[in-house]
Amino acid sequence: MKIIMFLILSYFLPINLYPQKLEYRNVDYYFDMVEKLEIDKLKKEGIIDKNLNVTKKYKNIGKNELNDKGQSKYFDVKINILKFVFKDYLYQQHLEYKQDVYVLYFSMAGFDDTEWCIIKWRKDKWNYQDKIDKKLVNMQRDNRGENKNLDFSFICFNYDEGPKNLDRVIIFIKNNYLVMERGGLYHSLFDLKNNKLLINEDSPFTKSNTDNKEEMNLWIKENVHDKILKIINQ
To answer: Which residues of 134-164 are buried (b: 16+ CB within 10 A; e: fewer)?
Structure first.
């Protein structure tokens, strides 16, 4: 009887027994997710109403803006949601190369620092995971990818803590090299044939020693992008 019921349910319900195909997700995909979670939580906490107006208890008199108590509540909500969403690295893109899959993941640290990493999976081990625990990634990173108990290898990591390059964050393969591009600038270069990271700067903001985005990007172009461009075009 149980077998018959399972067959009936299988016929009428869309049970997916196979991994769902993942498509590219830009950074805004996750920012939109955070914003929706924030709005839902602010409504639930009674900080805003269904029309997104600040409720009387948390509103400055005569203005539709948060008072001190409301701002404190809002920051608590925001921080908790950021911690919840970005406890993992979240999928952005993947590329296949021979028997491996290279996956670009995105996350945030603190209140607004943005970070990325590239992970290599064997095709038979990667089940289209759209997220991966940061603790596992950091463990593999600290061990320089030598932890044999994990099903993936750590390739590289970089982040922005000041001016940010968030547009067109992608990875691509050219002449057997894997490249990470952010904001129109190449940030990382990995030699696929020799399984070796050739160029990567963890924190361009820190290395460039400037708060000005144009100056930082000029540093990236001269010290990272142009070097990568020369190698992949040889």
So the answer is: bebbeebbeeebeeeebebbbbbbbbbebbb
